[in-house]
Specification:
By secondary structure, the chain is α+β, with helices and mostly antiparallel strands. The protein has two helices and five strands, in the order H-E-E-E-H-E-E. The strands form two sheets. A three-stranded antiparallel beta sheet has the order 1-2-3. The model is unreliable at 105-122 and 125-138 (pLDDT under 50).
Length: 142
């Protein structure tokens, strides 16, 4: 192998290692990501994980006792929506800071929805591309 090709190979390998390390760091941050948000009235705190799923709801000051059912439901939804929006923003920040790209496949974008947080790489996929897990086809009797 001549030195020019050897040097390019070393540069490509070093770039791969950097991207792989960035992927591992981003993956660790994403697995640890959780946000707790409070409703504006302070009646509800909701905690949401990186996948957008609720991991906890708290009523920190018992204000809920004097609230109507609709007011309490509104407070719960507000806290959940705020927490999910923040988790989405932090997730995007982690991915952007790492130099990685989220892709849902051709013509798809993983925006603030809940897909795409169980990210993985596929064999043969460049190390700077994360893909959501494939969904199993559901049919009759499945």
């Amino acid at each position: 192998m001549d030195t020019q090709h050897g040097s390019r190979l070393q540069q490509a390998l070093a770039a791969f290692v950097r991207k792989h390390e960035a992927l591992l760091k981003a993956e660790l941050k994403l697995t640890e990501l959780s946000v707790t948000a409070q409703s504006r009235d302070g009646a509800v705190e909701a905690t949401v994980g990186v996948d957008g799923e609720t991991s906890g709801v708290r009523f920190p000051n018992n204000r809920f006792q004097g609230m109507s059912g609709q007011a309490l439901a509104d407070s719960v939804m507000e806290a959940l929506t705020t927490a999910r929006a923040e988790v989405s923003a932090r997730r995007a920040g982690i991915v952007e800071a790492s130099g990685l790209h989220l892709t849902g496949g051709p013509g798809h974008s993983l925006g603030p929805d809940r897909r795409g947080l169980a990210l993985r790489t596929e064999p043969g996929t460049p190390p700077d591309v994360l893909r959501p897990p494939r969904r199993r086809a559901r049919g009759v009797g499945c």
